[in-house]
Amino acid sequence: MLDVQDVHTYYGDSYVLQGLSLRVARGEVVGLLGRNGMGKTTLIRSVVGFTPPRRGRVVLKDRDVTGWASNRIVGLGLGLVPQGRRVFPSLTVMENLTVAARRNGGPWTLDRVLDLFPRLRERAANRAGKLSGGEQQMLAIARALMGNPELLLMDEPTEGLAPLLVREVGRIIESLKREGLSILLVEQNLPLALGVADYVHVLSRGRIVHSSTPDDLWARADVKSQYLGV
Amino acid sequence: MTLEFWISQIFSGVSYGALLFLLGGGLSLIFGMMRIVNMTHGSYYLLGGYVALTAIWRSGNFVIGLLCGALAIAVIGVCEWNAFLKRLAGQELGQVLTTMGFALIFQDLALIIWGGDPYTIPVPAVLSGSIQAGELFFPVYRIFMIVVAVIVAVVVWLVLDRTRLGAMMRATVDDPEMARGVGINVHVISMGVFAMGAVLASIAGVVAGGFVGIYPGADFEILPYAFVVVIVGGMGSLPGAIVGSLMVGLLDNFGKAFFSELSYFTLFAPMAAILAVRPTGLFGRA
Ligand SMILES: Nc1ncnc2c1ncn2[C@@H]1O[C@H](COP(=O)(O)OP(=O)(O)OP(=O)(O)O)[C@@H](O)[C@H]1O
Ligand SMILES: [Mg+2]
Asked: Which residue, judged by its Cα, is nearest atom 19 of ligand 1?
């Protein structure tokens, strides 16, 4: 589904991703862990084309999409739930969903998305900027689903949410996984990430320093304390 | 000061305001949604009028003229944006210099193609003459100007506020990167907004061509008015452009009626006052 091959990504002169490779197979959930500022978001940005890598390749569904415009990459079957939600504040909830809609024969219709997020149905006519943080997070996920993606990139979807909502987001990710979606999940919430992921990578200073199944990572106290601060 | 005087002055002011709305609405759209300071806007007005004039000479049809003017200006605007302006995001000085350069080029080009004589766009017979009501005469063409402005305002509002395309335009203004991230072709959308703004100016040029005529220098003559409308109303706000253009139309009209030698003062003094109180204009967002 996704094959990131030795990407090197910069912000101006600052060298952030220093040769990073990973794969996400069809239907697989891959967790990406690491402390603040280690390059998790930069990897997401590299994949979606916001900050294209200067070296290396991003291959999505067997197509080399390195350097493509983001809207083309997204059109190929990628959904983005960005860090900080980034809903369109001046658009209504409904408009946030419809602008992202893509009919490509996928399973997600407006109705199905709203069934998954009943709260959004109630607030359909409200401006997205007026929603609570939790509602905005649901909207960001719902918006990504409207594009009928095959691969979902989720960047810290539980950041700043109350425990109840964190569990809610966890349940939603589980159910998306059951639907067969491939997911690349960036998370700081270790139990949640390890609970849902099939495979995890730990990032430090723009490099992958550990890759294993969640269970193996759970057992590795040294990796957890050195790279995750737990 | 009879009642008739007031009614006819207000009517004149409102119809002039309608013309200013067509002109300023497009500028406001481009200014507010794309953050481009476009000094070429007056040229779109002038060239739109000239192209329509030529098309009307050939076809004898006012509507065909209007459409040809709009199409030509849409193409010119899109080319200008694609070749230069899209690279100048956030650089106001570069934008002003570039678009001013284009304005000068278009001014000379118009002079070469259409010469220095003033023209009036031939108006269909149904739009000439006046409607009489008691002592009052309402020129049909001025009523037509108001009708066109109302139609354009409604269409622009419907497109921006009620369609998916309009929502995509607003999403692009909110967060261009994230707009791409949900699959919106921001390049095409921005081009569309720019073309829409330019087309409004061309409609203004055609409508004005049947009213005050088309002549060299009209582009730079009208530009300050357009900017006043935008500044008073607030950038990128449709209600702002409507209120701003009505205010400017009325002020200009009454200014000329009462203190004709001070008419620029009666126009710009209220603008300065509004800006002192509300720097973002009446309807502008900070
Ligand atoms: N736009 C930018 N310009 C310059 N440097 C940046 C930019 N964005 C991030 N960085 C730097 O790149 C490094 C990696 O940042 P990144 O956002 O990828 O980290 P992260 O792992 O997502 O962190 P967090 O958990 O806080 O979201 C950091 O040192 C950060 O300061
Ligand atoms: Mg991050």
From this structure: A37
Residues pairing with A78 in the sheet = A151
CA of A83 to the centre of ligand 2 (A): 6
- ipTM of predicted complex: 0.94
A143 and B CB contact within 8 Å: yes
**Cα(A66)–Cα(B48) distance, rounded to whole angstroms?**
42
- Which band of pLDDT confidence, cut at 50, 70 and 90, is reported for residue B286? low
Q: Which two tokens stand for residue B220?
A: 């730079």
Q: How far apart are CA A187 and CA A180, in angstroms?
A: 20
* Distance (Å, whole) CA B263 – CA B76: 34
The residue nearest atom 24 of ligand 1, judged by CA position, is: A36
In a domain, B4, yes or no: no
Q: Is residue B12 part of a domain?
A: no
Phi, psi of A19 (to 5 degrees): 85, 80
* Alpha helix positions (H), chain B: 3-34, 41-59, 62-83, 92-114, 140-162, 164-174, 176-181, 186-209, 218-233, 238-258, 263-277
Return d(Cα B44, Cα B65) in angstroms, integer: 15
Bridge partners for B131 per DSSP:
B138
> For ligand 1, is residue A46 a contact (CB within 6 Å)?
no
B236 falls within a domain: no
**B61 in contact with A at a CB cutoff of 8 Å?**
no
Q: Which residues of B touch A124 (CB under 8 A)?
A: none
pLDDT digits (tens, 9 = 90+) for B36-70: 989 999 999 999 999 999 999 999 999 999 999 99
Query: What band does B180 get if pLDDT is binned at 50, 70 and 90?
Result: very high
Segment (H or E) for A152 = strand A151-155
Which comes out higher in pLDDT, residue B257 or A198? Answer: A198
Residues B202 and B47 sit within 8 Å (Cβ to Cβ) = yes
How many domains does chain B contain in total? 1
Could you tell me if residue B277 is inside a domain? Answer: no
- Helix intervals (H) in B175-216: 176-181, 186-209
> Could you give the C-alpha distances from A197 to A27, A28, A81, A219, B82, in angstroms and in order?
11, 8, 17, 15, 45
Are the C-beta atoms of B17 and B249 separated by less than 8 Å? yes
Atom of ligand 1 nearest to the CA of A188: 25
- Tell me the pLDDT tens digit for each residue of A148-206: 999 999 999 999 999 999 999 999 999 999 999 999 999 999 999 999 999 999 999 99
Mean pLDDT of A81-110: 94
The token duo for A83 is 């860090």
Range of the domain at B204: 20-216
The residues with which A11 forms a beta bridge, in sequence order, are A14
Q: Is the pLDDT score of B158 beyond 60?
A: yes
- Mutant choice from A88, A91, A94, A146 vs B, greatest count of B C-beta within 10 A: A88
- pLDDT above 70 for B285: no
